From TrEMBL:
<dbReference type="InterPro" id="IPR005636">
    <property type="entry name" value="DTW"/>
</dbReference>
<dbReference type="InterPro" id="IPR039262">
    <property type="entry name" value="DTWD2/TAPT"/>
</dbReference>
<keyword id="KW-0808">Transferase</keyword>
<dbReference type="Pfam" id="PF03942">
    <property type="entry name" value="DTW"/>
</dbReference>
<keyword id="KW-0949">S-adenosyl-L-methionine</keyword>
<keyword id="KW-0819">tRNA processing</keyword>
<dbReference type="GO" id="GO:0016432">
    <property type="term" value="F:tRNA-uridine aminocarboxypropyltransferase activity"/>
</dbReference>
<dbReference type="GO" id="GO:0008033">
    <property type="term" value="P:tRNA processing"/>
</dbReference>
<feature type="domain" description="DTW">
    <location>
        <begin position="140"/>
        <end position="371"/>
    </location>
</feature>
<protein>
    <recommendedName>
        <fullName>tRNA-uridine aminocarboxypropyltransferase</fullName>
        <ecNumber>2.5.1.25</ecNumber>
    </recommendedName>
</protein>
Length: 384
């Protein structure tokens, strides 16, 4: 029974691109947020349009995708609830958390909507869209769109862009609760390498997952690898990447395609607990696309502790973080003769520098706000 549900959920994901839009309509009809909108005045209609996220604003946060239909629908419904209640939504703390009486009403509405959705895939897509929508609205005008730090802490001028070897493409598979988080490190990757070399894919956002899986299907299974630090999961090493390809295959790639068929590496970007669900979703989707074996998982021999660990005691990677995982991968690949001439070591250093810049910005912020720069002294002793 459980297997059937999962299978159905994943099939939904790979259906037509209209799927998310259809689902958005279902959610809208169940939320009934907009019941009062049909009576709305012209003035309120115009203010609603201004408040809806535009494509430029959406893409400014680090993606080249279209605006996800479900996210847009949730935003519209939130604005609709504002009009219904005749009060403005407000956000408190970090992470787009609603506050006050608006929060109480919205809580009731979104819980009812979630409950009414029968399909687990629909529930996930709604959960993700709502998280993203709240973060988008709550961060507007407050965070720098590029570095996701409060504007007064913006580190953009200190980030040095670098060119990632075109034989590699990273996918930052991010949990919605990590989206627009100041101490997220996945964002550093596209800040340095650009959106095409390090692409954001939000978990449970249909449009993003579809783009990523379309790229994987095009690339073929032998070109897609993922990094997951679970020591219990069967894993391979970077050596297996080479053995998976004949040397002729490598030569062919480099000579005739000039890296147009890159190796794809998926980095899970979320807290430890959330990563487990993301891991399962990727694995199930891979099994649907490529059969029982699924995706090969790489474990890194040299993965060190991230400097971010000093500030973030619960990272997605055990004692490290997403950007540090990318650094470890690039450094290990560089040591293989087949990959030694692509400047991967310098590219790993560029990410390390970016991480240090982020750490300094976050540390300066905590000091300015009178907070301790470390949550527990013992972490520093473990790392330094
Ligand atoms: Zn910035």
């Amino acid at each position: 029974m459980a297997a059937q549900t999962t299978s159905r959920a994943l099939t939904l994901c790979s259906r037509s691109p209209l799927r998310a839009r259809e689902l958005a309509k279902v959610v809208n009809s169940r939320m009934e947020f907009r019941s009062s909108l049909s009576n709305g005045s012209l003035a309120s209609s115009s203010s609603r349009e201004e408040a809806v996220i535009g494509v430029e604003e959406w893409q400014g946060w680090g993606t080249s995708s279209a605006i996800p239909a479900m996210v847009m629908e949730v935003v519209r419904n939130l604005k609709g609830l504002e009009e219904e209640m005749n009060s403005q939504m407000s956000f408190g703390g970090l992470g787009g958390k609603l506050k006050g009486s608006f929060k109480v009403q919205e809580d009731k509405k979104h819980r009812a909507t979630y409950k009414a959705l029968v399909d687990s895939e629909e529930k996930l897509q709604f959960f993700s869209a709502r998280q993203i929508a709240c973060r988008l609205l709550g961060s507007r005008g407050y965070l720098c769109q590029k570095c996701w730090l409060a504007k007064e802490d913006c580190m953009c001028s200190k980030v040095v862009p670098s060119m990632l070897w075109n034989g590699i493409r990273f996918w930052v598979y991010m949990h919605p609760k990590d989206f627009l988080r100041q101490n997220n490190t996945g964002k550093v990757l596209w800040q340095i390498f650009g959106l095409q070399a390090a692409t954001l894919c939000l978990y449970g956002i249909h449009e993003h997952e579809e783009i990523m899986w379309d790229a994987f299907k095009l690339a073929g299974k032998s070109k897609v690898w993922w990094l997951y630090p679970n020591k219990n999961a069967p894993s391979k090493t970077v050596m297996d990447i080479v053995s998976c390809k004949s040397s002729g295959d490598l030569d062919l790639d480099q000579q005739t395609t000039n890296g147009k068929r890159p190796l794809h590496f998926i980095l899970l970007d979320g807290t430890w607990n959330n990563s487990a669900a993301m891991f399962r979703r990727l694995k199930e989707q891979a099994e649907l696309v490529w059969g029982e074996e699924g995706l090969p998982c790489i474990s890194l021999a040299m993965l060190g502790a991230s400097p971010m660990h000093r500030l973030r005691p619960q990272p997605s990677w055990d004692r490290t973080c997403t950007a540090a995982a990318a650094t470890g991968l690039l450094a290990e690949l560089h040591q293989l003769p087949e990959f030694s001439s692509f400047g991967l070591e310098e590219q790993a250093e560029a990410v390390e520098d970016g991480l240090e810049t982020l750490l300094h910005a976050l540390t300066a912020r905590r000091l300015r706000m009178g907070r301790s720069i470390t949550r527990k002294e013992r972490h520093i002793n473990n790392i330094c």
